[in-house]
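Below is a filled-in request sheet from our internal design queue. Each sheet records the structural input a requester submitted and the sequence that came back. We keep these sheets so that new team members can see what a complete request looks like end to end.

REQUESTER: design group, bay 2
PRIORITY: normal
MODE: inverse folding
CHAIN LENGTH: 217
BACKBONE (tokenized):
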């Protein structure tokens, strides 16, 4: 079975078990707020980010607010998300760049987005997906882990996985794949103890097949 053939089966089963509508787990009202929330989500849960941004987005209502606040104050505002010094610096520098270079308007081009401080391809693709509705492959922790387990990739590098998935997944499924895999990761393929006994991928999952073979030896 080729990776494209396996991907087709995976998509069909994901569509049977999980909604195809796009769900954003990070709360925001303004476009740049999703960018900032995604920056904060690095090494942090979406639930924690939403708790922090509930107050953060009320306190800072414009990009100018982020550029004018003392950096140590901003650090304390986002402290519980972890790596708060680097994240505060990224938020402030990104706000400055958005104002100075992009006239306060979030760009949709991935190359432009990744020029912003603290923005990698994952963050850029989240923005492209939710703000602009552009087909994008978002490789977060769940997608990286489960895509590897299913055997659609042998890489552990998020960027390499992104480009691999772009080749084997139909473009129309790019956005849904991320959200469905997240749902699958939260419900069944949990880390570090996946519930393989309830999974509907065991017949084609490389991780399950290999672990079963190991137990039989």
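RETURNED SEQUENCE:
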């Amino acid at each position: 079975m080729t990776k494209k053939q396996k991907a087709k089966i995976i998509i069909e089963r994901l569509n049977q078990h999980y909604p195809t509508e796009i769900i954003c787990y990070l709360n925001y009202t303004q476009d740049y707020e999703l960018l900032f929330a995604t920056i904060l989500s690095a090494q942090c849960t979406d639930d924690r980010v939403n708790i922090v941004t509930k107050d953060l987005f009320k306190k800072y209502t414009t990009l100018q607010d982020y550029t004018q606040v003392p950096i140590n104050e901003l650090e304390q505002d986002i402290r519980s998300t972890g790596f708060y010094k680097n994240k505060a610096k990224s938020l402030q520098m990104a706000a400055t760049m958005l104002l100075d270079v992009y006239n306060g308007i979030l760009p949709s081009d991935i190359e432009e987005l990744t020029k912003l401080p603290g923005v990698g391809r994952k963050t850029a693709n989240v923005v492209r997906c939710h703000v602009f509705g552009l087909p994008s492959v978002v490789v977060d922790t769940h997608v990286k882990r489960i895509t590897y387990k299913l055997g659609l990739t042998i890489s552990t590098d998020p960027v390499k996985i992104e480009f691999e998935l772009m080749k084997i997944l139909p473009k129309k499924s790019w956005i849904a794949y991320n959200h469905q895999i997240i749902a699958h990761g939260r419900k069944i393929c949990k880390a570090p103890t996946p519930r393989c006994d309830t999974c509907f991928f065991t017949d084609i999952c490389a991780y399950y097949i290999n672990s079963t073979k190991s137990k039989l030896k």
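SHEET NOTES:
- The CA atoms of residues 150 and 204 lie 7 Å apart.
- The mean pLDDT is 95.
FILED BY: M.R.
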